[in-house]
Amino acid sequence: MMKAIHHTAISTPDLNRLIRFYCDLLGFEVEREFSWPAGIEVSDNILGLKDTAAKAAMLKLGDFRLELFQFSSPEPKSSDPNRPVIDHGLTHLAFTVEDIHAEYDRLVKAGMTFHCPPQNIGSTVTYGRDPDGNVVELMQLA
Predict the structure, then answer these.
(1) Average pLDDT of each block of 10 consecutive residues along the chain (142 residues)?
(2) All residues at 6 or more sequence positions from 24 whose CB lies less than 8 Å from its CB, including other chains
(3) Strand runs (DSSP E) across 27-86, as ranges?
(4) Would you say 117 and 137 are in contact if contact means Cβ atoms under 8 Å apart?
(5) How many structural domains comprise the chain?
(6) Domain containing 35 — which CATH number?
(7) What is the Cα gyration radius of the chain?
(8) Distance between CA atoms of residues 77 and 59, nearest Å
(9) DSSP three-state, residue 30
(10) Helix, strand, coil shares, percent, the chain, to 5
């Protein structure tokens, strides 16, 4: 029986850039950093690939964790940083906030791009993008 969601993971071409984004702008803390060289059989088995190598970080915000990977082997494929949210794959990460307009303004000033200003649909929401183009939703519950 499932108990809870522990973490979500994102692969990135620049681990330090995403650590800074999620920690400095969204309030995560680095719980731990780790890496492994190519040729570690257990890592290859878990990932279903051969000769994997990566640097990684587990970030924490409350009870939620976000795991970030920067793979160096095998060579990762780039993704479209403007991938529409309707395409298959991760759609978005959603964060509840107390004052969505203040958070929106703060993040815009820090350089984060958004699809639109906060919109009221019962709750107030907006979608923005992290530096790799992953969609981050801000949500102020009604």
Answers:
(1) 83 97 98 96 93 97 95 92 86 93 97 96 95 94 90
(2) none
(3) 29-36, 53-61, 64-73
(4) no
(5) 2
(6) 3.10.180.10
(7) 16
(8) 24
(9) strand
(10) 20, 40, 40
For residues 114 and 104, what is the distance between their CA atoms, to the nearest angstrom?
9
pLDDT (0 to 100) of residue 91: 86
- 42 is a domain residue: yes
Among the candidates 22, 43, 73, a domain finishes at 73
Q: Kindly provide the b/e burial profile for residues 45-78, where b requires at least 16 CB atoms within 10 angstroms of the residue's own CB.
A: eeeeeeebbbbbbbbeeeeebbbbbbbeeeeeee
pTM over 0.90: no
The total number of residues shown for the chain amounts to 142
